Q: What sequence folds into this?
């Protein structure tokens, strides 16, 4: 019983550390808005993945993945949202550096709830149809032989904690004073590069329909 779980966890780790929309949005929030924003974004990504795991285990994910219209709608919603985030960065202006290494720039402190880093992390992942496919495939193919319920629950809990730990680690590293100081010294260039990257991800996601 242990070997299939080790193999499944290895597959999960490879998927986790592969750069994608979740990683990009965590990097963006950690550098531009500080440690708190990065950690909130990490929590949003983890919450969305937890929802995908629940949906996949209930069998709803398979229904979504097998419905062309629903799947296409999710793909386009994700592409539009990633494109929106990218366009915002491309059109952004230079901001004053925060007074502390973990504080947000003054002009960004009163942003609307729609721009919450928690919501950004959640939406980027929950709208990602590829994430739905991954978790459906993971539980139906990679973890074919269902372990006892307590073991499965513990395994799922370990994955969720690993998700939170990885993206929180990314947020902690990139919100360090030296990283943020470098960012604010090259803010416009970074925003343009990250904006183009998010738009490229949007195009890539949209091309899967």
A:
């Amino acid at each position: 019983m242990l070997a299939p779980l080790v193999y499944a966890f290895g597959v999960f780790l490879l998927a986790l550390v592969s750069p994608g929309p979740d990683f990009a949005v965590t990097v963006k929030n950690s550098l531009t808005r500080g440690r708190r924003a990065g950690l909130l974004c990490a929590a949003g990504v983890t919450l969305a993945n937890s929802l995908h795991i629940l949906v996949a285990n209930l069998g709803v994910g398979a229904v979504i993945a097998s419905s062309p219209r629903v799947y296409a709608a999710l793909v386009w919603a994700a592409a539009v949202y990633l494109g929106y985030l990218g366009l915002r960065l491309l059109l952004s202006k230079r901001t004053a550096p925060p007074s502390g290494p973990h504080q947000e720039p003054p002009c960004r402190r009163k942003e609307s709830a729609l721009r919450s880093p928690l919501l950004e992390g959640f939406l980027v992942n929950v709208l990602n149809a590829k994430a739905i496919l991954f978790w459906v495939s993971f539980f139906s193919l990679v973890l074919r032989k269902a372990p006892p319920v307590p073991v499965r629950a513990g395994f799922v809990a370990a994955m969720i904690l690993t998700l939170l730990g990885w993206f929180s680690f990314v947020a902690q590293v990139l919100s360090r004073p030296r990283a943020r100081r470098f960012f604010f010294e090259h803010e416009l260039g970074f925003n343009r590069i990250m904006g183009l990257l998010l738009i490229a991800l949007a195009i890539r996601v949209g091309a899967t329909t």
In short: The chain has one domain: 23-93+114-206. The CA atoms of residues 2 and 108 lie 48 Å apart. Residues 23-93+114-206 form one domain. DSSP finds ten helices and no strands in the chain.
